């Protein structure tokens, strides 16, 4: 699973209706260009592809009175909403997701109900624990990686990553159960996107042809 579709849908959803440059600006504001494949080309390609697939509705917007080319604004369809929530759930539960996919999912958790997020994260922990149990049938961490030669360091890395991932997830569950954050149906959501014309302190400043479309 690539995080780009989830990230783009998340940005469009928060705006309600957004053009490509707004989406790109938001993803750079989130730092996604550093920890995922959310580069300008992939962002604009994802917007066009999802519009073709019926997940987004494309609106042609007339040029402003001060000039400049017209822009296409995108709005999420019901099919897009269903796909978005499916991707969020998958990102949170699949225990061996890459860090960029999990990061994208965490950025969207508040669009789900609190109780569901807790259940999804518990499912993730269970998956990690099951994987670890299967691995340690053949590799005993307490005996050290040397038992398998230097190749044992690979198993050591994965077991330690699983342990830290489970610990982090349990901590997140505890914070959520303790009342942290505002989830779907609980009130005014946290605003994580930039307003029109708001300066982005984390923008790359690198122009792209799609910025004015």
Features:
three-stranded antiparallel beta sheet; mainly alpha; 213 residues
Q: Explain this structure to me?
A:
The protein is mostly helical. Helix 5 packs across helix 6 (99-106). It contains eight helices and three strands. The protein starts with a helix and ends in a 36-residue tail after the last helix.
Write the layout of secondary structure elements.
Layout: H1 4-15, E1 18-19, H2 20-29, H3 32-35, H4 40-52, E2 56-61, E3 71-76, H5 78-93, H6 99-106, H7 114-135, H8 152-177
Antiparallel strand pairs: 1-3, 2-3
Helix pairs in contact: 1-2, 1-5, 5-6, 7-8
Give a count of the beta strands, DSSP E runs of length 2 or more. Answer: 3
Shape: elongated
Q: Specify the helix fraction band.
A: 40-55%
Q: Could you describe the largest sheet, including whether it forms a barrel? A: 3 strands, antiparallel
Low-confidence stretches: none
Mean pLDDT: 87
Oligomerization: single chain
For the termini, the CA-CA separation is 27 Å
Give, in order, the helices and strands: HEHHHEEHHHH
Number of helices: 8
- Kindly name the structural category: mainly alpha
Strand content: 5-15%
Describe the structure in brief.
52% of the residues lie in helices and 7% in strands. The chain contains 8 helices and 3 strands, in the order H-E-H-H-H-E-E-H-H-H-H.
